[in-house]
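Researcher: Structure prediction, please.
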Amino acid sequence: MSDNNRERKTSQANRDQRAITLPELMVDVRADLLDVGIKAGLAVMAQMFVEDVEAICGQRYEHQKPRKESRWGTTGGEVVLGGKKVSIKRPRVRSGTHEVALSTYEHFKDSDPLTKRVLEQVLIGVSARRYHRSLEGGGIDLEFRGVSKSAVSRRFVMATAERIAEWMARPLDGLDIVALFMDGIRVGDHMVVAAIGVDSDGRKHALGIWEGATENSAVCQALVDNLLSRGLRVDKPMLFVIDGAKALTKVIRQTFGKNAVIQRCQRHKMENVKSHLPKGLQMLVSLEMRRAYQSDDVNKARGILKGLICRLEDAHPGAAASLREGLEETLTVIELGLPKALRRSLQTTNIVESGMSIVRHVTRNVKRWRSGKMVLRWTATGFMEAEKRFRRINGYQEIPRLVAALKRKRDLDKSKAA
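Model: Predicted structure follows.
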């Protein structure tokens, strides 16, 4: 490295980290500790302004060789402090007809910390109307702005727009997805279909969402097309865990063909059957269905469910028809012969439901949904927040058995078709 480059790097490091020695900093020991800290921080910032000016113009009243830069009084300015924009006085430096920027002021006026603060506060449940009450240091008489409802809303939109665009375009070709969970969530008058993938290491990934009026084929196809355009593989068998929507089943079959192995959510099926029954019978039927789904033998599970259909056929034909519809697809993970721990993770869409619960938590302060874009923005933000909390699924050590079982089932289905 040349001497000039070394000197430049050393100079930059010195600008980034400076030791400020204040001659005297008077604070009121009776004040709140936060107020003392803010007052001290503003004093330090003022001293840093002085050092910047001296570095450019030299010491005040000191005889120097002719220079282009000179002091030019003071002016108002704003810096980001404690989640708000605070008004301050700052010195000015001129060079000819142009203003010379002070590096310290340029650093502290950056609005990115404020945008990040707004996003974090909204995610933990602080509403736009109450944002100002979540800020520290209210005892010092400071002029500030950027805490109104409209300002917070604008910064939330700004903070999420770019993140969502990046998330929805994130490449998927580097992920070895073995199971894909898809389900819908109702947000206002909109239906949002979400997809979460589980890779060969058992890690969960929020892959994408799509918005529509209902969970129809067009919405489901748009989401699947988005996943494919980003590199989701279709050349290997994959387990699809879905809520039973016919539109979703149709899209999966058309797109993935024999590589699609579908598991219908057993919890959704139980809720659908119960909705056709009187309350006095719901618990008994649920216990019988749960006994079937907990069985290790697919033939035994099938026998239990078919026996239950026969008993419900006359008195409750709607419940019998609901149980009969898609019965085989609710038994897929049992037929694959998976261990119980892994089977429990794959037999329902609870993985998507857990993400949706965080979406509901994040959006609980929203009173009116103005547009589909607003729905997507909030829902995507909720799923990105959920992804931070994802852990590997239970039974992930047995995923190689799932991969092998999926290949066997695909090959078997192909041989039957031939």
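Model: The chain has a mean pLDDT of 81.
Researcher: Thanks, that helps.
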